[in-house]
From TrEMBL:
One of its GO terms (molecular function) is kinase activity. Keywords: ATP-binding, Kinase, Nucleotide-binding, Transferase. Pfam families: DAGK_cat, YegS_C. GO terms for cellular component: plasma membrane. The keyword ATP-binding applies. This is Diacylglycerol kinase family lipid kinase. Residues 1-129 form the DAGKc domain. InterPro entries: ATP-NAD_kinase_N, Diacylglycerol_kinase_cat_dom, Lipid_Phosphate_FormReg, NAD/diacylglycerol_kinase_sf, YegS/DAGK_C. It comes from Deinococcus radiophilus. SMART domains: DAGKc. The keyword Ubl conjugation does not apply.
Amino acid sequence: MTSPPLAVVLNRRAGVGRAGHEWPRLRGELEALGVEYCLIDCDTPAEALTQARALPASWALATVGGDGTAASVLPEAIEGGRPLLVLPYGTGNDFAGTLGLRPGDFRSALRCLSRPPERVDALRVTYELDGTEQSAYVLNGLGMGFDAQLTAMLPLAPAWTRGAVRYVWAALGSLRAMQTNHCAVTLDGEPWASGPTMLCSVMNARTLGGGFQFNPDADLSDGQLNVVLAAAVHRREVPGLIARVRGGHHLTHPAVKYHPAQVAELRWDQPTYLHIDGEVRGQSRWLRAEVLSGAVTLLNQVG
């Protein structure tokens, strides 16, 4: 098999600690295919990014974990122009799900190395946190409001929960503390929505939370992001709305708005929880997201 040498970024804590145990199996697959590789095995995302940036120019990146693991080296994939291969073994695996990959199916992902890479979009987000402006790249999606509140609950979920079950557990646990703040959304410089808001997500890929189809019409190479907003609803309506999101049937709900754009700006009247690719960043009142068309060279097959 002809492929670039791969720097395998292993997140041993991904998949509730199971990803680290899968390394011998993945190593066997790489050696059986004759792929040159090295291992980046770090305790923190910052250390993984530092090692990725120090690689020779010809090396590509392969991430073993979930959306957060891919996000940890996304700056080097974009700024350094390194091809990226996603080998899913995280808790949610939402970006991999958009690609049609199952967690732990390393063989199917590695088969893509024999095919030409594809260019896919990413997002660049700028946001305010503790009075300072910060920025990040996004491969899958981000959310503010109830979605981010329940993401903050996920680490508290019982160990037996997986994927969508883990998301539902966190969602039901977040209902008692659910808050709706006023949010004003501008798309491509034009006002789009304003009012009491339960959540607002800015999406590149299809799903969040282990398979919930926030963005059922996702196209990773269309040069657009998609904004999903849910206005304030009564707590008793939330479980039904969650069920509709699971199947991607929520876009016809009267409280839901959905629209593509190239730039989205969110302004909240109160600090509101924010997650980026499933990682909670804190509370913010302002966020700007823009699409970076074709910014990532992806070694996985799309669709």
